DNA sequence: TATTGTTATACTCTATAACTATA
DNA sequence: TATAGTTATAGAGTATAACAATA
């Protein structure tokens, strides 16, 4: 358990990190906004999956996932195939064009980070990645309808 | 200079960290959205300042800053006083009510992080804070109109 | 009845551009 | 002319709720 002051610091740093995300976002191709990029990258990383699984990985509501997926499907970067085991479901899969886009995105993020982090050591980059992964993990599934905080009553109305 | 593969990992983790930010955001008071909270916290942290300086610290365009500031001013959490040295400028300062709000925000972030990161050590929290600060620093002022990447021509149109 | 996914609607955050007042 | 700040407008991301189809 860390000291309160350190939690405060971390909260401030997390709030400020949006600037970096926006900086990375500005490097994206004009036809592939952040939401689309995230869908493609997760499908590349984890292989084909259903909408609900993707929503979980994106950590957003399924309605949001549906919109992003509709966009990349329209670009023909993914296919939405019927799930033989459950007719309500759809299986999402990258197309060859989608794979090409993923490669492009990958190269872009490498170029951008190489530019900004040229003076970081290998170790530092890995350390930050690792801590961010752990942070994400500690928060678990903190989507609106999923996890509730233990002191909800004093904050945003639960509905 | 880190290996390309590590940059890719970091890009993925950064993209996923939005979930944590949203989780923290859901704990905010209903009358104080993220933009307002950021303004208050920076004024508390750095003391009174001009709009342009605040925009720089927020790492957003001044038009955005102006909107957030107008909101917190309407709540009477800050004052916008004329700058005697430059009549175009305004000096922003927390009111006592604003200070109270800052304290409330601080307590909220501590409660939320204590809840989610209960099994993190002091050292780990500090390490993550430090790396995030360094990351932000390495990106410098990467706002849209400020910094330009060296390979712009293949990405979003420069204008 | 419950679950998967879609759509409509609303809210927050951000950027660009046009504008004003002052330097 | 250039700069500080405001406002109007547009675009991206997200959440809630209502809905259709299937389990």
UniProtKB/TrEMBL annotation, chains A, B:
SMART domains, alphabetized: HTH_MARR (SM00347)
InterPro entries: HTH_MarR-typ, MarR/SlyA-like, WH-like_DNA-bd_sf, WH_DNA-bd_sf
Domain of life: Bacteria
Domain HTH marR-type: from-to ranges: 7-137
Pfam (any one): MarR
Protein name (database record): MarR family winged helix-turn-helix transcriptional regulator
